[in-house]
């Protein structure tokens, strides 16, 4: 769906795999900073912490563990602590990637829903579009730039169907 898994995510915003990517020669520090500036992040406070979370937090502190509050992309004025973040936030309190999608649409982007991409079209090592199916038919879209972002499960399958000459795709976990 529009917004992908961020719609069902719980709004915790922490950096991950920064070190691992750096070891592979990919430095994402600038991109992390940019994202952190764009997404409205606040440390969670009592206002949005469920009683269970609060109890664990206080019990851990009393036992001498170091507990830190989670940076969240949640508008604490709108959150009603229902605990149903993973069903999609009905209060509109949680930031999701739909915010970016809506911005793109306002600037003229067209979103094609119900369209399953099956393959990136590649010619002489250069991606020039995608092929897939929708409710009516097969489709092909051509573009100067193709960004494949179908998530951890979708992306490898599309790459396996595409002519990228890499037999390892989707086979190495972790
Ligand atoms: C319940 C839950 C809670 C989470 N909580 C957090 C959290 O608190 N903090 C955090 O950082 N992360 C959290 N995550 C993880 C986070 O949501 C994901 O890591 C992140 O959204 C992945 O982004 P992505 O763009 O790679 O893929 P996705 O968000 O999965 O987006 C992929 C998009 O591609 C589309 N797609 C897939 N295959 C195709 C295809 N063949 N053709 C066309 N479109 C396709 C999908 O419909 C989707 O819109 C959570 C995830 C879940 C499921």
From TrEMBL:
Keyword annotations of the record:
FAD, Flavoprotein, Oxidoreductase
Gene3D superfamilies in the cross-refs: 3.30.70.20, FAD/NAD(P)-binding domain
Q: Quote any Pfam family the record assigns.
A: GMC_oxred_N
> SUPFAM superfamilies per the record?
FAD/NAD(P)-binding domain
Q: Which domain of life is it from?
A: Bacteria
Q: What residue stretches are annotated with the 4Fe-4S ferredoxin-type domain?
A: 70-99
Name the InterPro entries for this protein.
4Fe4S_Fe-S-bd, FAD/NAD-bd_sf, GMC_OxRdtase_N
Membrane-spanning residues where?
none
Instruction: Identify a single GO molecular function assigned to this protein.
Output: flavin adenine dinucleotide binding
Protein family according to the UniProt entry: Belongs to the GMC oxidoreductase family.
**What's the protein called, per UniProt?**
4Fe-4S binding protein
Organism of origin is: Halanaerobium saccharolyticum
């Amino acid at each position: 769906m529009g917004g992908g898994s961020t719609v069902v995510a719980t709004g915790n915003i922490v950096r991950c795999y920064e070190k691992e990517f750096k070891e592979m020669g990919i430095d994402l520090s600038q991109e992390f900073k940019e994202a952190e500036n764009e997404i409205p992040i606040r440390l969670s406070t009592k206002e949005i912490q469920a009683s269970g979370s609060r109890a664990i937090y206080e019990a851990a502190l009393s036992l001498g563990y170091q507990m830190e509050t989670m940076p969240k992309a949640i508008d604490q004025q709108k959150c009603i602590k229902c605990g149903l973040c993973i069903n999609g936030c009905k209060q509109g309190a949680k930031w999701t990637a739909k915010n970016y999608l809506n911005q793109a649409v306002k600037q003229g982007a067209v979103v094609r829903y119900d369209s399953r991409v099956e393959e990136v079209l590649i010619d002489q090592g250069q991606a020039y579009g995608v092929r897939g199916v929708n409710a009516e038919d097969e489709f092909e879209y051509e573009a100067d730039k193709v960004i494949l972002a179908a998530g951890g499960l979708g992306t490898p399958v599309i790459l396996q169907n595409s002519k990228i000459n890499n037999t390892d795709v989707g086979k190495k976990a972790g």
